[in-house]
Write a structure and sequence with these properties.
Layout (H helix, E strand, L loop, with lengths): L3 E10 L2 E8 L5 E8 L5 H15 L9 E7 L2 E7 L6 H6 L8 H20 L2 E2 L8 E3 L5 E3 L12 H4 L11 H4 L6 H17 L9 H10 L11 H10 L10 H5 L2 H4 L8 H6 L40 H4 L17 E2 L2
Parallel strand pairs: 6-9
Antiparallel strand pairs: 1-2, 2-3, 3-5, 4-5, 7-8
Helix pairs in contact: 3-6
Cofactor: Mg(2+)
Protein name: non-specific serine/threonine protein kinase
Family: Belongs to the protein kinase superfamily. NEK Ser/Thr protein kinase family. NIMA subfamily.
Length: 338
């Protein structure tokens, strides 16, 4: 930490602390995530390092940029760019009831989708999309962040059913203890879009049981007709209870009312991301998992694995070092990260 001057703590969570620092080298401000690893087993430490390796390969103008990582005094430190504009959650709360314009909402939403497309194209799931993890730079550019609580998972039944997330953003399939897939990220994306339109959570209740019931039923207050039919219809698609009926992020971006906005945010990096995604990052599978849904007190039943996970022929596995997980509704294997 000698290279950085601590300024203040700006967050704390299950992963550890988030600290705003100033580099003694270039005088720029960064956010450092401090994760205690002194009590971790050697396997858990290796797991954390692998997660950082995945993080280091996420390069996109709408994703918070990784700078470096290091270990010191029993802690793992991950250095990320600092988004001076704060997070979308605070931006929404600061509106104090005044709705955003549709133009503003769609500009933000397109940028979030471009970031998520970059992630999904690489067969990676974010698994913690929420307004607190979407940041704004000084010039107002949206950046998707917080991959720091990542878990790279192998293809056992338990691992395929693991989820991480704030309860407001849990999808119906997660509430029913079904496998998490890319369409669960799409549900969370819908929750964020709804918040931008209403300044409220789509699904709220006084306790976890009632919240889960609302999510499973897909019942939420309608968005005001102040917004276009295109926008309201999109929300209805994102909130389809059956994940197979939700659009992919690529299908969202080709909708005419969104596609015409994309050129505003294109850059050489984004254009490059349109090329076929490179092969999986050579990372070994993690062994230890958590069951975050359990901490909310949701009684999750254990189901038979059935077809949730299918074995991949040995010949197809040879060039792939990261274990593949086939989840419901997907034809391609997905990799989990945070």
């Amino acid at each position: 930490m000698d290279k950085y001057e601590r300024l203040k703590k700006i967050g704390e969570g299950s992963f550890g602390k988030a600290i705003l620092v100033k580099s003694r080298t270039d005088s720029r401000q960064y956010v450092i995530k401090e994760i205690g690893i002194s009590r971790m087993s050697n396997r858990e430490r290796q797991e954390s390092r692998r997660e950082v390796a995945v993080l280091a390969n996420m390069s996109h103008p709408n994703i918070v940029q990784y700078k470096e990582s290091f270990e010191e005094s029993g802690c793992l430190y991950i250095v990320m760019d600092y988004c001076e504009g704060g997070d979308l959650f605070k931006k929404i709360n600061n509106q104090r009831g005044t709705l955003f314009s549709e133009e503003q909402i769609l500009d933000w939403f397109v940028q979030i989708c471009l970031a998520l497309k970059h992630v999904h194209d690489r067969k990676i799931l974010h698994r913690d999309i929420k307004s607190q993890n979407i940041f704004l730079t000084k010039d107002g550019t949206i950046q998707l962040g917080d991959f720091g609580i990542a878990r790279v998972l192998n293809s056992t039944v338990e691992l395929a059913r693991t989820c991480i997330g704030t309860p407001y953003y849990l999808s119906p399939e997660i509430c029913e203890n079904k496998p998490y897939n890319n369409k669960s990220d799409i549900w969370a994306l819908g929750c964020v879009l709804y918040e931008m339109c209403t300044l409220k959570h789509a699904f709220e209740a006084g306790n976890m049981k009632n919240l889960v019931l609302k999510i499973i039923r897909g019942s939420y207050p309608p968005v005001t007709v102040h917004y276009s039919q295109d926008l309201r219809a999109l929300l209805a698609q994102l909130f389809k209870r059956n994940p197979r009926e939700r659009p992919s992020v690529s299908a969202i971006l080709v909708k005419p009312f969104l596609a015409r906005r994309i050129h505003k945010f294109l850059s050489p990096q984004v254009n490059a991301s349109k090329r076929p995604a490179p092969g999986p990052i050579p990372i070994s599978p993690a062994q230890k998992i958590t069951k975050p849904a359990a901490k909310y007190g949701v009684p999750l039943t254990v189901r038979r694995p059935s077809d949730a996970i299918r074995k991949v022929p040995d010949a197809a596995k040879k060039p792939v070092k990261l274990k593949q997980v086939r989840t419901m509704g997907n034809t391609d294997p997905m990799y989990f990260i945070g």
